Amino acid sequence: MSNKAIICQDLTKQFGAFKAVDHISFEVEQGEIFGFLGANGAGKTTAMRMLCGLSFPTSGKATVAGFDVYHQQEKIKANIGYMSQKFSLYENLTVTENIEFYGGVYGLSRTEIKKRGGDMIDMLGLSQSAKKLVGELPLGWKQKLSFSVAIFHRPKIVFLDEPTGGVDPLTRRQFWDLIYSAAADGITVFVTTHYMDEAEYCNRISIMVDGRVEALDTPTQLKHSFQAQTMDEVFYQLARRAQRTAD
């Protein structure tokens, strides 16, 4: 068995003459927290959709959790979790009802749902809110609950699309504690974020510009390579370089 959670080789997605994803190649280790960065329109979401089995590539190769993105999309979906940028739980159901619903979707038994659901509610500190409608929870609690539900079935990989957008810095830090805990349990975390301070929490970072992977390394090594103090500076230099190339 490969110890690679994700393998991409020249993965490409083309819409007519436009290449949204242009021959990207990278590998993600099992249990790694992998940051997938880029400006709006850089191709991040298109690439993530292919890796999640939601869209067929135009060309190239990729495996996710050992399964081929062309021929084994349903197996990929069964082995991953996904949390979208837009909150995805049902706000007109209670915390417990959401857990029971998604547990059933993931194919867990009632016994498993009850045990894991109780543990999750206790871990999140939601015991007093278990019977509340999710719509009544503060945004930060919704996001933490949504992430916990995304890994409720203990997937091999979880994909997070801008998971902390709109929440305060303290809640963002608490959310990242949940990510670290998931990674410690062996779950690979593939995360997009536009917060450059969060990028530094990742084991490694890939930065996309105009559909291509223009930089990939640890945060420390990227800052060293670009003689930068922060990831904001690294990102700025890459954007300037891309603009000069375009001109």
UniProtKB/TrEMBL annotation:
<dbReference type="InterPro" id="IPR027417">
    <property type="entry name" value="P-loop_NTPase"/>
</dbReference>
<dbReference type="GO" id="GO:0016887">
    <property type="term" value="F:ATP hydrolysis activity"/>
</dbReference>
<protein>
    <submittedName>
        <fullName>Putative ABC transporter ATP-binding protein</fullName>
    </submittedName>
</protein>
<dbReference type="GO" id="GO:0005524">
    <property type="term" value="F:ATP binding"/>
</dbReference>
<keyword id="KW-0067">ATP-binding</keyword>
<dbReference type="InterPro" id="IPR003593">
    <property type="entry name" value="AAA+_ATPase"/>
</dbReference>
<keyword id="KW-0547">Nucleotide-binding</keyword>
<dbReference type="Pfam" id="PF00005">
    <property type="entry name" value="ABC_tran"/>
</dbReference>
<dbReference type="InterPro" id="IPR003439">
    <property type="entry name" value="ABC_transporter-like_ATP-bd"/>
</dbReference>
<feature type="domain" description="ABC transporter">
    <location>
        <begin position="6"/>
        <end position="235"/>
    </location>
</feature>
